[in-house]
Amino acid sequence: MIIKVDDVKDDNVYNEFLKDNPGRGTLKIRVTSASEALPVSGVNVVVSKDIGDNTYIFYEGQTDSSGMINNIKLPTPVRITSNLEVPNFTTYKVRVKYSKDKFDKTYEISLCCGSGLIQYVNITPNVNVEEANSSGD
Q1: What are the extents of the domains in the chain?
Q2: HEC profile for 92-105?
Q3: Which residues sit opposite 28 in a β-bridge?
Q4: What pTM does this model have?
Q5: What is the pLDDT of residues 63-121, one digit of tens each?
Q6: Residue 69 main-chain phi, psi, to 5 deg
Q7: Is the C-alpha dihedral spanning 62, 45, 92, 1 positive or negative?
Q8: Cβ-count burial of 105 within 10 angstroms (0-12 exposed, 13-18 middle, 19+ buried)?
């Protein structure tokens, strides 16, 4: 079952996840084309996590005119205070979908408390080879 976290009420599995992940990390998405030369707006992005038997959606939206989505706040484990400890992290799925170029890719990202992560996505435009050849090019 797919559940939006904004709609969660009394869900023991989700509440247990939040107890284990009381910290916060920040995710940014940057979508470009032409080797990062052109921002791509209107790209659909869904950030989710499978917890138990359900998939929880933490964010759903589209890139702006600069190809960005800023400040997606996500639950993480608490911050480690010792330099000798390995930081704990939570893994999320980031699905990026742009129907104009038939682009649909899912990334896995890991986020620690207090960290900021930028997920870069480069979309290669679909080129219709038959159309290009029929014009004599």
Answers
A1: 2-134
A2: EEEEEEEHHHCEEE
A3: 118
A4: 0.85
A5: 999 999 999 999 999 876 666 666 789 999 999 999 888 899 999 999 988 889 999 99
A6: -130, 120
A7: positive
A8: exposed
Query: What does the chain look like in DSSP terms, one character per residue?
Result: -EEEGGG--S-HHHHHHHHH--EEEEEEEEEEETTTTEE--S-EEEEEEEETTEEEEEEEEE--TTSEEEEEEEEEPPPP--TTSPPP-EEEEEEEEEGGGTEEEEEEEEE-TT-EEEEEEEEPPP--HHHHHHTT-
**Separation of alpha carbons 64 and 11, rounded Å:** 33
Within 8 A by CB and 6+ apart from 37, the residues are none
Work out the burial of residue 67: count CB atoms within 10 Å of its CB; fewer than 13 is exposed, 13-18 middle, 19 or more buried.
buried
The arrangement of secondary structure in 2-134, i.e. its CATH architecture, is Sandwich (2.60)
Q: How is residue 57 written in tokens? A: 């959606």
According to DSSP, the residues that pair with 61 across neighbouring strands are 45
Alpha-carbon distance of 113 to 89, in angstroms, equals 7
Q: Which of 83, 74, 69, 85 is nearest to 115 (CA)?
A: 74
- Cβ atoms within 10 A of the Cβ of 27, count? 23
